[in-house]
Design goal:
By secondary structure, the chain is of the alpha/beta class. It is about 45% helix and about 25% strand. The protein has a single domain, classed as 2-Layer Sandwich (Nucleotidyltransferase, domain 5). Belongs to the YqgF HJR family.
């Protein structure tokens, strides 16, 4: 079963998918936000294309573990995706993933312009990979 990881932001949604066995995550796309319905239509195409069986949505918690306004928006988006797709959606703590993605890209000497283009996709990869690494018993 393939899984999809989402890094939901105000302007973009980073998208990653797993291999069929659930070992590795690959970034596939950064969706420009155009409204919840249009955003979902593109996600729906990707869900069908990759035969997704579970969706992992990054949940940006505050450092003290509480959920703020940004987290509430991600939860609402995850619920919307679940209600439309009927696919299980898991909210996954994404604290520091964007910073880790940025650091990885800096270490790889990726230019600022290029980083901006791939940061959300890279964050989605990290969200999905962290989830799969923490849940090895789930398998494919």
């Amino acid at each position: 079963m393939r899984r999809m990881g989402l890094d939901v932001g105000d302007k973009t949604i980073g998208v990653a998918v797993s291999d069929e066995l659930g070992f590795t995550a690959q970034g596939i796309e950064t969706i420009r936000r155009e409204g919840k319905k249009k955003d979902y239509l593109r996600l729906e195409e990707l869900i069908k294309q990759y035969e997704i069986g579970e969706i992992i949505v990054g949940l940006p918690k505050n450092m003290n573990g509480t959920i703020g306004p940004r987290g509430e928006l991600c939860q609402a988006f995850g619920e919307y995706v679940h209600n439309r797709s009927r696919i299980p959606v898991v909210m996954w703590d994404e604290r520091l993933t964007t910073m880790a993605a940025e650091r990885t890209l800096l270490e790889a000497d990726v230019s600022r312009k290029k980083r901006k283009q791939v940061i959300d996709k890279m964050a989605a990869v990290m969200i999905l990979q962290n989830y799969m690494d923490a849940k090895p018993q789930i398998g494919g």
